[in-house]
Write a structure and sequence with these properties.
The structure is a single chain. The protein is elongated, with a radius of gyration of 22 Å. The relative contact order is 0.11. It is built from 14 helices and 5 strands. With about 280 residues, it is of the alpha+beta class. Helix 2 (about 35-45) crosses helix 4 (about 65-75). The chain has a 5-stranded antiparallel β-sheet with strand order 2-1-5-4-3, with helices on both faces.
């Protein structure tokens, strides 16, 4: 195994990308397969000297921002970005520190669980301030599993929105929803918390500018209610009104989704295997 896997990864990906794929002119007499170092450095906003050090293994501690910029410049898919981040962690000088973050405790108070039980078959979900899905109603599971929202261990709404290719097709209002999730993170959690910092670093690499531009913007207050459009692969378009109950002592928020029209109520009844009328549309 090479002790410069990150550098080799960056170089091979650079050589596999053509100038045309990243919007650069091809030009005559190109001796380098793929992109030149200078071209990649310009696209990523870093110096040629620093890129050379990375590729040669003389610098093994690129920041998440640099990795995210390289991922954007090379048009890397999410799996390749995840691999690049892992290689940087495994071979960086601070690799011992990267594994020191303790796992999060995802627990549910008994009264909160009882409330969720009484909400069936309404789609309701309990989220941590990081966007982890802590628990949910069976109605939410039947709604969310076909969307891919429950993938992951634990499943995470922020990670789904920014790195799962299904998210933009599922949510026509993706831009607004992505901003709202960032607002929740900025408003309800400290960016200095090690778990928050780890998620921010991860998404800086795996999502790139789509995430970093939003997290760096002036924070806004997150909405507590509203209406989302969802293109559901099994029952078509849904209009879901939502209400949010914040549980600050637990670092959690409970989101309850209600059908905003009769067509959505009927579609949710079908997902739940219920006769029509189990869920009623809420207007206004």
């Amino acid at each position: 195994m090479s002790d410069n896997e990150l550098g080799i990864f960056i170089r091979t990906r650079r050589e596999a990308v053509t100038p045309t794929e990243v919007g650069l002119p091809t030009g005559p007499r190109r001796r380098t397969p793929g992109l030149r170092r200078s071209e990649l450095a310009t696209l990523a906003g870093i110096s040629v000297e620093y890129l050379t050090r990375l590729e040669q293994g003389r610098d093994r501690n690129p920041s998440p921002q640099v990795l995210g910029a390289l991922g954007d410049a090379l048009r890397l898919p999410v799996p390749d970005r995840i691999l690049m981040r892992r290689l940087a962690k495994e071979h960086g000088e601070d690799k011992a520190l990267c594994s020191a973050v303790h796992p999060r405790v995802l627990t549910v108070r008994a009264t909160v669980q009882a409330l969720l039980d009484r909400l069936e078959p309404t789609p309701a979900v309990l989220l941590s301030w990081l966007g982890d899905i802590v628990t949910c109603t069976a109605g939410y599971e039947r709604f969310a599993r076909p969307l891919g929202l429950l993938d992951g261990n634990p499943p995470n709404v922020m990670r789904y929105l920014f790195t799962d290719e299904r998210a933009r097709a599922v949510y026509p209002g993706w831009e607004r929803l992505a901003g709202e999730q960032i607002a929740h993170l900025r408003h309800e959690a400290s960016l200095h918390d090690p778990h928050v910092a780890a998620l921010v670093d991860e998404l800086t690499v795996t999502a790139g500018a789509e995430f970093t531009e939003r997290i760096a913007a002036v924070p806004a207050l997150p909405p507590r209610s509203g209406t989302d459009l969802v293109e559901h692969p099994e029952v078509g378009r849904l209009r879901l009104s939502f209400e949010t109950l914040v549980l600050p002592d637990d670092g959690q928020r409970l989101i309850v989704h209600l059908p905003a029209d009769e067509a959505t109520a009927t579609a949710l009844d079908r997902l739940n295997g219920r006769t029509r009328g189990a869920l009623r549309a809420v207007r206004g």
